[in-house]
Write a structure and sequence with these properties.
Keywords: DNA-binding. The protein has 243 residues and is mainly alpha-helical. The protein has twelve helices and no strands. The longest helix has 33 residues.
Protein backbone atom coordinates (compact mmCIF):
# COMPACT_ATOMS: atom_id res chain seq x y z
CA UNK A 1 0.00 0.00 0.00
CA UNK A 2 1.45 3.40 -1.00
CA UNK A 3 0.61 7.05 -0.49
CA UNK A 4 -0.58 9.44 -3.20
CA UNK A 5 2.83 11.15 -3.18
CA UNK A 6 4.67 7.92 -3.87
CA UNK A 7 2.09 6.95 -6.52
CA UNK A 8 2.77 10.24 -8.27
CA UNK A 9 6.53 9.60 -8.24
CA UNK A 10 6.17 6.05 -9.54
CA UNK A 11 3.90 7.13 -12.43
CA UNK A 12 5.80 10.32 -13.24
CA UNK A 13 2.89 12.71 -12.68
CA UNK A 14 1.95 15.31 -10.08
CA UNK A 15 -0.40 14.83 -7.17
CA UNK A 16 -2.63 17.48 -8.74
CA UNK A 17 -2.85 15.38 -11.91
CA UNK A 18 -3.93 12.34 -9.92
CA UNK A 19 -6.67 14.36 -8.29
CA UNK A 20 -7.82 15.57 -11.70
CA UNK A 21 -7.98 11.96 -12.88
CA UNK A 22 -9.99 11.08 -9.80
CA UNK A 23 -12.43 13.95 -10.44
CA UNK A 24 -12.90 12.93 -14.08
CA UNK A 25 -13.49 9.28 -13.22
CA UNK A 26 -10.36 8.03 -14.93
CA UNK A 27 -8.74 6.57 -11.82
CA UNK A 28 -10.93 5.17 -9.02
CA UNK A 29 -10.21 6.57 -5.58
CA UNK A 30 -9.16 3.98 -3.00
CA UNK A 31 -10.73 3.69 0.41
CA UNK A 32 -9.13 5.65 3.23
CA UNK A 33 -7.33 3.85 6.02
CA UNK A 34 -8.05 4.27 9.71
CA UNK A 35 -5.89 7.39 9.75
CA UNK A 36 -7.90 8.99 6.95
CA UNK A 37 -5.23 8.57 4.26
CA UNK A 38 -5.79 7.06 0.85
CA UNK A 39 -3.63 4.03 0.26
CA UNK A 40 -2.88 2.94 -3.30
CA UNK A 41 -1.91 -0.46 -4.71
CA UNK A 42 0.20 -1.71 -7.58
CA UNK A 43 -3.01 -1.82 -9.65
CA UNK A 44 -3.36 1.93 -9.26
CA UNK A 45 0.21 2.43 -10.42
CA UNK A 46 -0.36 0.31 -13.52
CA UNK A 47 -3.66 2.05 -14.36
CA UNK A 48 -2.14 5.47 -13.81
CA UNK A 49 0.82 4.74 -16.08
CA UNK A 50 -1.57 3.60 -18.80
CA UNK A 51 -3.66 6.77 -18.44
CA UNK A 52 -0.56 8.97 -18.48
CA UNK A 53 0.78 7.20 -21.58
CA UNK A 54 -2.48 7.69 -23.49
CA UNK A 55 -2.75 11.32 -22.38
CA UNK A 56 0.86 11.99 -23.42
CA UNK A 57 0.05 10.45 -26.81
CA UNK A 58 -2.72 13.00 -27.30
CA UNK A 59 -5.78 10.93 -26.49
CA UNK A 60 -8.42 13.25 -24.94
CA UNK A 61 -9.21 12.50 -21.29
CA UNK A 62 -12.88 11.93 -22.06
CA UNK A 63 -11.89 9.33 -24.66
CA UNK A 64 -9.50 7.64 -22.21
CA UNK A 65 -12.35 7.21 -19.75
CA UNK A 66 -14.41 5.48 -22.46
CA UNK A 67 -11.51 3.21 -23.43
CA UNK A 68 -10.48 2.06 -19.97
CA UNK A 69 -12.71 -1.00 -20.16
CA UNK A 70 -12.84 -1.25 -23.95
CA UNK A 71 -11.51 -4.20 -25.96
CA UNK A 72 -8.01 -3.91 -27.36
CA UNK A 73 -9.39 -3.43 -30.88
CA UNK A 74 -11.23 -0.28 -29.80
CA UNK A 75 -8.13 1.04 -28.08
CA UNK A 76 -5.99 0.46 -31.14
CA UNK A 77 -8.55 2.17 -33.39
CA UNK A 78 -8.68 5.15 -31.03
CA UNK A 79 -4.91 5.44 -31.19
CA UNK A 80 -5.01 5.30 -34.98
CA UNK A 81 -7.63 8.07 -34.95
CA UNK A 82 -5.45 10.19 -32.69
CA UNK A 83 -2.48 9.58 -34.96
CA UNK A 84 -4.46 10.69 -38.02
CA UNK A 85 -5.63 13.82 -36.21
CA UNK A 86 -2.09 14.66 -35.13
CA UNK A 87 -0.85 14.18 -38.68
CA UNK A 88 -3.41 16.70 -39.93
CA UNK A 89 -2.59 19.16 -37.16
CA UNK A 90 1.14 18.86 -37.84
CA UNK A 91 0.57 19.48 -41.55
CA UNK A 92 -1.50 22.58 -40.79
CA UNK A 93 1.05 23.85 -38.27
CA UNK A 94 3.86 23.40 -40.79
CA UNK A 95 1.84 25.35 -43.37
CA UNK A 96 1.24 28.10 -40.83
CA UNK A 97 4.91 28.13 -39.84
CA UNK A 98 5.96 28.41 -43.48
CA UNK A 99 3.60 31.34 -44.02
CA UNK A 100 4.81 33.10 -40.85
CA UNK A 101 8.41 32.72 -41.95
CA UNK A 102 7.57 34.21 -45.34
CA UNK A 103 5.82 37.12 -43.65
CA UNK A 104 8.78 37.68 -41.32
CA UNK A 105 11.15 37.66 -44.28
CA UNK A 106 8.99 40.15 -46.18
CA UNK A 107 8.31 37.64 -48.94
CA UNK A 108 4.54 37.46 -48.44
CA UNK A 109 1.63 39.83 -48.05
CA UNK A 110 -1.78 39.72 -46.42
CA UNK A 111 -3.26 40.30 -49.87
CA UNK A 112 -3.33 38.26 -53.08
CA UNK A 113 -0.69 39.15 -55.68
CA UNK A 114 -3.24 40.96 -57.86
CA UNK A 115 -3.98 43.38 -55.03
CA UNK A 116 -0.29 44.08 -54.50
CA UNK A 117 -0.04 44.86 -58.21
CA UNK A 118 -3.10 47.14 -57.93
CA UNK A 119 -1.50 49.06 -55.06
CA UNK A 120 1.72 49.44 -57.06
CA UNK A 121 -0.38 50.86 -59.92
CA UNK A 122 -1.92 53.42 -57.55
CA UNK A 123 1.55 54.60 -56.56
CA UNK A 124 2.55 54.91 -60.23
CA UNK A 125 -0.56 57.00 -60.97
CA UNK A 126 0.35 59.52 -58.29
CA UNK A 127 -1.95 58.60 -55.42
CA UNK A 128 -0.71 59.60 -52.00
CA UNK A 129 0.91 57.08 -49.62
CA UNK A 130 -2.05 57.71 -47.28
CA UNK A 131 -4.50 56.65 -49.99
CA UNK A 132 -2.49 53.54 -50.89
CA UNK A 133 -2.26 52.48 -47.24
CA UNK A 134 -6.00 53.01 -46.76
CA UNK A 135 -6.78 50.99 -49.89
CA UNK A 136 -4.55 48.14 -48.68
CA UNK A 137 -6.40 47.94 -45.36
CA UNK A 138 -9.81 48.04 -47.03
CA UNK A 139 -8.90 45.31 -49.52
CA UNK A 140 -7.79 43.11 -46.61
CA UNK A 141 -11.31 43.51 -45.22
CA UNK A 142 -13.01 42.88 -48.57
CA UNK A 143 -11.01 39.74 -49.38
CA UNK A 144 -11.50 38.36 -45.87
CA UNK A 145 -15.27 38.87 -45.79
CA UNK A 146 -16.33 38.63 -49.44
CA UNK A 147 -13.74 36.53 -51.32
CA UNK A 148 -16.37 35.47 -53.85
CA UNK A 149 -16.92 39.04 -55.09
CA UNK A 150 -13.59 40.69 -54.22
CA UNK A 151 -11.96 39.83 -57.56
CA UNK A 152 -14.92 41.26 -59.47
CA UNK A 153 -14.67 44.49 -57.48
CA UNK A 154 -10.94 44.65 -58.15
CA UNK A 155 -11.50 44.35 -61.90
CA UNK A 156 -14.06 47.15 -61.71
CA UNK A 157 -11.50 49.34 -59.96
CA UNK A 158 -8.93 48.58 -62.64
CA UNK A 159 -11.43 49.61 -65.34
CA UNK A 160 -12.15 52.85 -63.50
CA UNK A 161 -8.48 53.73 -63.24
CA UNK A 162 -8.00 53.03 -66.95
CA UNK A 163 -10.48 55.82 -67.77
CA UNK A 164 -8.67 59.21 -67.56
CA UNK A 165 -11.75 61.15 -66.44
CA UNK A 166 -12.69 58.64 -63.73
CA UNK A 167 -9.07 58.32 -62.63
CA UNK A 168 -8.90 62.11 -62.19
CA UNK A 169 -11.99 61.99 -59.98
CA UNK A 170 -10.26 59.52 -57.68
CA UNK A 171 -7.07 61.60 -57.66
CA UNK A 172 -9.10 64.68 -56.78
CA UNK A 173 -10.87 62.69 -54.06
CA UNK A 174 -7.49 61.71 -52.62
CA UNK A 175 -6.38 65.37 -52.77
CA UNK A 176 -9.57 66.55 -51.04
CA UNK A 177 -8.64 64.73 -47.82
CA UNK A 178 -7.04 67.82 -46.28
CA UNK A 179 -9.46 70.44 -47.63
CA UNK A 180 -11.97 72.37 -45.55
CA UNK A 181 -15.31 70.49 -45.80
CA UNK A 182 -16.95 73.67 -47.12
CA UNK A 183 -14.34 74.42 -49.77
CA UNK A 184 -16.18 75.06 -53.09
CA UNK A 185 -14.07 72.33 -54.67
CA UNK A 186 -15.89 69.76 -52.50
CA UNK A 187 -19.28 70.56 -54.04
CA UNK A 188 -17.87 70.58 -57.56
CA UNK A 189 -16.18 67.21 -56.99
CA UNK A 190 -19.34 65.74 -55.47
CA UNK A 191 -21.23 66.70 -58.63
CA UNK A 192 -18.67 64.95 -60.85
CA UNK A 193 -18.72 61.88 -58.62
CA UNK A 194 -22.52 61.65 -58.72
CA UNK A 195 -22.61 62.10 -62.51
CA UNK A 196 -19.92 59.46 -63.04
CA UNK A 197 -21.73 57.02 -60.75
CA UNK A 198 -25.03 57.46 -62.61
CA UNK A 199 -23.29 57.02 -65.98
CA UNK A 200 -21.44 53.86 -64.97
CA UNK A 201 -23.77 52.03 -62.58
CA UNK A 202 -27.32 51.36 -61.60
CA UNK A 203 -27.42 53.55 -58.50
CA UNK A 204 -29.73 51.08 -56.76
CA UNK A 205 -27.21 48.26 -57.26
CA UNK A 206 -23.73 49.65 -56.86
CA UNK A 207 -20.79 47.20 -56.92
CA UNK A 208 -20.35 45.48 -53.57
CA UNK A 209 -23.56 46.93 -52.14
CA UNK A 210 -24.86 43.61 -50.87
CA UNK A 211 -28.00 44.30 -48.85
CA UNK A 212 -27.22 41.33 -46.59
CA UNK A 213 -23.80 42.68 -45.62
CA UNK A 214 -22.75 45.61 -43.47
CA UNK A 215 -19.21 45.58 -44.89
CA UNK A 216 -19.82 48.38 -47.46
CA UNK A 217 -21.14 50.61 -44.68
CA UNK A 218 -18.14 49.74 -42.50
CA UNK A 219 -15.77 50.61 -45.33
CA UNK A 220 -17.46 53.93 -46.06
CA UNK A 221 -17.53 54.70 -42.35
CA UNK A 222 -13.78 54.05 -42.13
CA UNK A 223 -13.14 56.35 -45.10
CA UNK A 224 -15.40 59.12 -43.76
CA UNK A 225 -13.84 58.96 -40.30
CA UNK A 226 -10.41 59.78 -41.71
CA UNK A 227 -11.42 63.13 -43.20
CA UNK A 228 -14.26 65.64 -42.59
CA UNK A 229 -14.00 66.62 -46.26
CA UNK A 230 -14.51 63.01 -47.36
CA UNK A 231 -17.45 62.71 -44.99
CA UNK A 232 -19.12 65.75 -46.58
CA UNK A 233 -18.37 64.41 -50.05
CA UNK A 234 -20.16 61.17 -49.15
CA UNK A 235 -23.17 63.09 -47.86
CA UNK A 236 -23.38 65.31 -50.94
CA UNK A 237 -23.00 62.42 -53.40
CA UNK A 238 -25.70 60.39 -51.65
CA UNK A 239 -28.05 63.38 -51.73
CA UNK A 240 -27.50 63.96 -55.43
CA UNK A 241 -27.90 60.28 -56.33
CA UNK A 242 -31.25 60.07 -54.57
CA UNK A 243 -32.72 63.43 -55.59
Amino acid sequence: MITIGRLARYAGVTIKTIRVYHAKGLLPEPERDSSGYRRYTARHVIDLIKIRTLADAGVPLARIRELRAAPDADLHQALRDVDADLTTRIRNLRRTQKHLRRLAAGDADLLPPEISAHLDRLRELGFSPRWVELQADLWVLVFATHPETATELLHDQADVLADPALRQIFLDYDHAHDLDPHDPFIEELAGRMADATRDRYDVDRLPGQDTDSDIPALIQGTVNASSPAWQRLDTLVRQQLHD
